[in-house]
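Quick start: read one record
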Amino acid sequence: MNDNSVNTARRRFLTGVTAGVGAVGAAGAAVPFVASMSPSERARAAGAPVEVDISRLGPGQILKVEWRGKAVFVVNRTPQMLASLAEVEAKVADPESAESLQPDYARNRERSLRPEVMVVVGVCTHLGCAPLEKFQTGPQSGVEPDWRGGFYCPCHGSKFDLAGRVYKGVPAPTNMEVPPYRFVDENRILIGVHHGAEVA
């Protein structure tokens, strides 16, 4: 074996190793660069619509889901629950939802697309606490003797009716927020997409 063949073999080996290391380095540098161009899981979760199946949500029941890091309450209101909205109208601070956050299609007494299905962000508008569902009526509710059902925030005593409308004389300044949503079909709701909007 002469010196030329040894040097050629060594040269090929070193060239191959160098090329391999360079390729690995280039791939390693490219991964974070490409990843930086696509939104993170957190960013996707922050704005992604959430589909909710309400087919098993019985009358008078509540379903809680998360959207944009917040709880969203979906309630299947009974006829009695809907009747209570008129009964407490004089007690709520913003019965027409003029000062509250909701899409135009939810600016009605029920604050919803379909009267029986309530969709609200489950956050007290005072300091962002989580209100409790208090659907039991009367003194046994633990809220007030003539309570007609709704939501009660134990942090500072704010009260909301079964449309998320805030009662007068409590710390919360506005009604609970109604998020954008639409019905995909009879039993599925898409939270985060406005009624009438196309889904990408």
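DSSP finds three helices and nine strands in the chain.
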